[in-house]
Amino acid sequence: MLSGALAGYAVTSVLKGAIIGGIAGVIPDLDEPRSKFGRMLPFVSISLNRLVGHRTFTHSLLFAGIAGLFLWPFIGQPHALAVTLGILAHVAGDLLTGKVQVLYPNPMRIGISVSRFGFLVMDRLVRISLIVIIVAWIFTG
């Protein structure tokens, strides 16, 4: 969510863009029934997971592009771009902690495979770094 919020704010320069990007940043995990978003929409999440699996379609460039293009007429270009970049920020984070089918439907998975401990370390480092960036951004203008 933090990386999506930062991406959304970067392209819109407004709080609304940060909120949209932050929400978009959790959408890719809709394909994982145990995720926060997946638990909120279990029917969609379970169905999506059974259909395509985790870190496939919803973690792809295709999905990010479709989401942005679909929402553009309803929320406008800057906010649709915040959605696209929020999703891509999530995908970029997942590339640091595992394999992702970012070129879906191409079955090739790319990313860095890490142990559970490596995942926890990377997750904490990225979170702390994003919080520092956001706080610095708030206080510098």
What key phrases describe this protein's structure?
141 residues, mainly alpha, two-stranded antiparallel ribbon, 7 helices, 3% strand, globular
Q: What's this model, at a glance?
A:
This protein has 141 residues and is mainly α. It has one domain (2-140). The protein has 7 helices and 2 strands.
Description:
This protein is mostly helical and 141 residues long. The protein has one domain. Helices cover 68% and strands 3% of the residues. It has seven helices and two strands, in the order H-H-H-H-H-H-E-E-H. The protein has helices at 2-12, 15-24, 36-40, 42-52, 61-75, 77-95, 116-140, and strands at residues 99-100, 110-111. A two-stranded antiparallel ribbon has the order 1-2. It is globular and about 45 Å long. The two termini are 22 Å apart. Keywords: Membrane, Transmembrane, Transmembrane helix. This is Inner membrane protein. The chain crosses the membrane at residues 6-30, 51-72, 117-139. Pfam families: YdjM.
